[in-house]
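Response to reviewer comment R2.3. The reviewers asked that we include at least one raw input/output pair. We reproduce the pair for Pirin here without editing.
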Amino acid sequence: MTPRTIKKVFLAREQAEGAGATVRRSIGTPNMKYLTPFLMLDHFNVAPGAGFPDHPHRGQETITYLLEGAVDHEDFAGNKGTIYAGDLQFMTAGRGIVHAEMPNQSQGTNIGMQLWVDLPKELKMCEPRYRDLRGDEIPQAKSQDGKVNVKVISGKSLGVESLKDLAYTPVWLLDISIRDGKHTQEIPANWNAFAYVLEGSVKVSDGETSRQVEQYHNCVFEQKGDDVTFESNSARIIFVAGIPLDQPVVQYGPFVMTSRDEIMDTMMDYQTRRNGFERAEDWESEIGKTMGRVY
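Raw output as returned:
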């Protein structure tokens, strides 16, 4: 096994997003524009009265992992529901979706992670779909000494494998907690990988050198190597890895395609309500109407 070296470490700074929400964005910024297949990573904080009212997507998948609170979802196909702390929602925008994501008005502050994953070119125009994963469905792995606990949302850790078919693009997503311990995490060959430090700080080692990575920093690894080692007195890490896609990324806001012409076509489709956006005509979400209300 060959340890991976660190490519880059940088702070995810707070910024405004949506309507009244704040996010710590790491991927999708000048520090790291894209890391195929990943387009964006947001650590979001949304209070009641704020949120992400009706908006479109095409060409990507989103993975939302809620850490605290509750978030409602509603789209123009009639899908609706709520995820709670520990739950995930996997959304494939495909050829087109218009939806709203708003904090549940019965809760306080809502905190979570949202990861945007690129779709392979041949699946950009697939039908949209959703899959929820409840917290009690997620397999958990523990180290023999009891100092490391891993929620295996997608992928494999400490010999425990996740549920299958959560996203079209192969992705590993692990929630790793370390208390006075050390954890070596395997990584599939040639996949891109990074670790976002959610709580505490962690020492990352490549076998010869080590570096301390602090809270709210994203640690991006080189593509070569088989594993990475984390050591901490107290830390919680969101570890992500994914298979690289050999295709251009052309993004305009919530639309992600592989050429400028496809983006222009997408904008026209959305404006004229066709080719996947037909159901957006005269549609308005109910949860989006809670915008600005605080109970």
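The mean pLDDT is 93. The first strand starts at residue 6 and ends at 11. Further pairs are available on request from the corresponding author.
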